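Example 3.2
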Amino acid sequence: TIQSMADPFVPMLTLCIQHGDKASVQQNNEILFTSLQCLGILLKWNLPQSKICSQTLGPPVLKLLQGCCGVGNGGAAGGKQDLRMGCFKALILLISLDNRDRHLSAQTTEQQSSKLPKDASMDETEELLNTPMPLSPKQMKVLISLLHSAILENTEQLSSATFGLIKSIVSRRYISAEFYDLMVVVLKLSVQSQKESIRQQCCQIFLQFLMDYPLESKRIEQHLRQIVLNIQYEYQDGRLSALNLLTSVTTKFPTALLEEHCQLLFLPMVLQLVNDSSSECRQAVADCLMALFRNVGVEKIHLLYDYMVRWIGGGDGDECAQSLQLKRTSAQLFG
């Protein structure tokens, strides 16, 4: 068959990548890029040589990626940009293949998370919960640093591969201080990026991070405070992106976790409903509030209603415009 005939090419192409740094990357980037593309197809076929070769490909691909991004190599101009994208895609494939071979599951991660002490340090968390990756811990730090630089470049050509690689790392629930810092940047870009596609990808990645990672309550609260703060962003597109993420949080968070933080979410949303100049954003805030009401228990709904009762009944005859608007907003929420 074609697949059996292709099997001998897997180690040949792997050697090409492994020795790619021994010659000028500038002269060989087209060959290396083509080799990565071919391997991207052949490794998916689960050929006899695929598993052996895929286990050795991670470090040389990272080395090629460093060569593309190196300061001394003039950035990632021209063909280097293609090779750089090819390296990102190759690493996505290697991580996904490694994930498939190890049969990882959310249940396994949750079982391990239950063994984690509440006061565990980041190093202890990494040691207990991280599963082996195609790269060593030291190499993963290098990769995350390169990803940090890549997402800040705001390059349309690279964005799909870059965020695809971040998604694949999140899917493995890889834990490190550097990766947590990268998630902070992803959250910032979910609002500040001028490209809608990037804002959407960042929202998806950060939501998966919030849902799947073993975050302590204090860290979850910090992230939620930042999301709530983002709904006040100066530009409408950014506010809408933050509101979409907040709506996803109120819809998908476990009820107990949502109830724990519902007051943190509710009060800023009501104020934004009062103050936002955009009718589209006000509608998005209203939808988010309705999602919050639908996904918390009766006791918490009564607590939130108490706030609205006080707003409606508070004040005297000499009220400011914002107080009157708050009363009208509370009446609308009751409706």
